[in-house]
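Q: What structure does this chain adopt?
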Amino acid sequence: MAKYKQSVLWAVASKHIKLSDHAPVIPRSNSGILLSGYPFVSKTLREAGKPQDQRRHHCCGVTLQNEGIGYQDLNQLIKDPCDLEFTIELMKVEAPEDYEKESWQMNEEEKLGAVPALREEGNRLYRGRDYVAAASKYAQAIGLLEQLMLSEKPGDEEFLKLEKEKRPLLLNFSQCKLQERDFYAVIEHCTTVLDKEPDNVKALFRRGKAHVGAWNPAEARADLRKVTDLDPSLAATVLKELKVLDEMERRKDLEDKEKFEGKMF
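A:
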């Protein structure tokens, strides 16, 4: 619950209970710092799993005063604060050095420092063929870099540096998605890299394979042939992929022909 701005309350309470124990906590209504925000916390938790169009919004103080926050019991609590009883169960105790912060809790230095560790963990998971978990680590690292980029002016040196650091992660993420056969995700993220680095061989090769999977044969051939032009050492690998594409086209032509003949007779 610390992330929902009740950290003072829970920190005080947790000092007095043991692991797996339950303890009632009754903060008094006159302890404003602990309870004044609770109705809004409760509203957030109630609506966390709802679609956006089913959530109840308030946008200004006048609306809040006239209409409340959409829940009668919470409106009443705002109007007439009273003592509340919470039951807390201590599920786990972590040492400070073992606690993994979420991105919103990190400062800029911590976010930047977390990226290499996430990339390495993603690499380890990929080598173990856990492609879904690896993609998640790469996505976390990409997200941290994108958050840092929001603080920079597009085109400035620091922005370009962060953007460049993001590209290898996009390629790693794309490789995971290729293994998952999520071809359109591969095409999207490789294209993002190629917009900045048109001759990136890895991006071209992975996008070419994704175009094969998504059945865009013309685009696949264009990407794969450019790979050979840029790196002749990959000619044999590209030729193998092109032969697969040729065979797929041959089979599809036969299937289409059989379907057409079936309709004729």
